Amino acid sequence: MELLGKTALVTGGGRGIGRSCALALARAGAQVVVAARTTTEIEEVAKEIEALGCRALAVSLDVSKLQSVEAAFQQVVEKWGGCDILVNNAGIAASAPIAKCSEELWLQIIEINLNGTFRCIKAALPTMLARNWGRIINIASIAGKAGAPYISAYAASKHGVLGLTKAAAQDVATKNITINAICPGYVETDMGEKAMNIIMSKTSASKEQARAALEQTTPQKRLFQPEEVAFLVVALASPLAAGINGQAINICGGAVPY
Ligand code: NDP
Q1: Is 187's C-beta closer than 6 angstroms to any atom of ligand 1?
Q2: Eight-class DSSP state of 53
Q3: How far is CA 151 from CA 6, 81, 115, in A?
Q4: Which of 37, 84, 154, 230 is the most exposed place for a label (fewest CB within 10 A)?
Q5: Atom 12, ligand 1: which residue's CA is nearest?
Q6: Ligand 1 close to Cβ of residue 64 (< 6 A)
Q7: Mean pLDDT score, 150-162
Q8: Is the Cβ–Cβ distance between 15 and 189 less than 8 Å?
Q9: Cβ-based neighbours of 122, under 8 Å, separated by 6 or more
Q10: Calpha distance 129→253 (Å, rounded)
């Protein structure tokens, strides 16, 4: 229960990696704000947390809209005094080769994955600075470190998240606040499923073949589980992780060695 007394906010907490992070943070003692656009999903996760005997709050949030971000964080300030731990997990993925990547697709991905992360960091910092303690964990991707075909916009957004992480971490380094990123390979979630469906629709691959193609992207020949990401989120949120700042830690089975 090392996070007892802390308030965590997880963006995109309604499903996939975000849901696992919300549950793991609650198990570690934090009270958790579950934030995303789909009300039914965030309310369901909040109920799961309460069933563990922990406190949870479902808050409607669209990270692509400044007003929504400000309103959501204001709600947390009013209810629980603000958040100590922010997990910037909300994200989308879409694929297109660069020649066919539309302006609209590019802007949508940058808006949610990169600008959304910036907005939430800005909204969370006043409380953290006032309390002289904070943990910000950005869920990036190994696509934030290496390129691959069809994902220019996604890779640009995640490379941007890593740049933001490294620079912002230096701004708050003397304030007992750390900002780090986690870079997973393919994780078994709706987003992972979508990646398989795209492979199936663009090639004649079966579901098994599409899955195998994703598994081949790591020396471990497997997909990663949301709980593996949540494990690292809890570790980085821990008081003992105070010296880890501005880092981008891979969960990719050794696929990207930097
Ligand atoms: P899912 O699609 O399963 O979940 C994405 C979550 O983000 C949902 O809760 C969704 O909720 C939320 N979200 C999307 N857009 C917004 C928005 N505008 N405002 C608020 N919330 C939003 O994805 P994963 O769990 O797989 O991915 C989570 C993160 O991990 C993403 O940042 C992704 O890029 C990253 N990642 C995923 C990998 C994978 O293979 N799955 C690999 C590496 C990184 P709602 O739509 O209700 O708003």
Answers
A1: yes
A2: T
A3: 36, 39, 18
A4: 37
A5: 12
A6: yes
A7: 98
A8: yes
A9: none
A10: 35
Testing ligand 1's pocket by substitution, the residue of 67, 108, 110, 187 carrying the most ligand atoms inside 8 A of its CB is 187
Rounded to 5 degrees, what are φ and ψ at 31? -90, 140
Lowest mean pLDDT among 37-41, 201-205, 206-210: 201-205
d(CA 17, CA 15): 7
What domains can be seen in the chain, in order of their start residue? 7-185+225-247 (3.40.50.720), 187-223 (no CATH)
Angle between helices 66-80 and 116-131 (to 10 degrees): 30
Residues acting as catalytic residues: 154
- Give me the mean pLDDT over the 38-56 stretch: 98
Farthest-apart Cα atoms in the chain, separation: 56
pTM of the model: 0.98
Distance 112 CA to ligand 1 centre (A): 10
Residue 134 phi, psi (nearest 5): -175, 155
- Nearest alpha carbon, ligand 1 atom 39: 187
User: Measuring CA to CA, which residue among 169, 85, 170, 164 is closest to residue 131?
Assistant: 85
- Residue 1 confidence (pLDDT) above 90: no
Q: How many contiguous H segments (helices) and E segments (strands) does the chain have?
A: 9, 7
